[in-house]
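Q: What would this complex look like in 3D?
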Amino acid sequence: KNQVEQSPQSLIILEGKNCTLQCNYTVSPFSNLRWYKQDTGRGPVSLTIMTFSENTKSNGRYTATLDADTKQSSLHITASQLSDSASYICVVRGNFGNEKLTFGTGTRLTIIP
Amino acid sequence: EAQVTQNPRYLITVTGKKLTVTCSQNMNHEYMSWYRQDPGLGLRQIYYSMNVEVTDKGDVPEGYKVSRKEKRNFPLILESPSPNQTSLYFCASSLFGGGQGAHNEQFFGPGTRLTVL
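A: Here is my prediction, written as structure tokens for the whole assembly.
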């Protein structure tokens, strides 16, 4: 069964600090992995996307890494800001007949001043 | 502005009273989808449409209907809502369905918070 597991479920850090969110998946065969940011009460917005041949992708202060061998991804946030407070969702797309999206349950990140 | 719009944004209704949540996109996307989001469960797909007049069930289709008569619109219909359909609903669209291209980004609407009493 395709699964995407994220950790931690929630995280609180001080403004200006760095943090790393984790995503482990069992989806196979694998096509791509996206990280989304979802502000409270809003729709998810894509941050990064990586295919199996990419092992890192940056978007400003957000850097995602992918290890397709171990089926793990991480999202690193540098110099956090209050506006980073949101849920971060890992989404994996399969391939070759298994192309549906599988969503993680997200990590709720809270930045405190 | 390229966007996915949903209406209404908030809705409180009673058990059994038919309702429709509209979804529209202005990006000429072929693929559209409906999700529900519940605490601790993440986003779950209800129905999706690969193109006009082509719809298929997602993971949790029971109690819902959809139609795709035009490319831009994909309404979600609850014929007889029940309290277990209380949830946050998102419509999304992308250029194509399936795995065609890593940059086939899915754009989400702002969400519809539905409460069924």
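A: To summarize the key features: DSSP finds no helices and eleven strands in chain A. The two ends of chain A are 41 Å apart (CA to CA).
Q: Very helpful, thank you.
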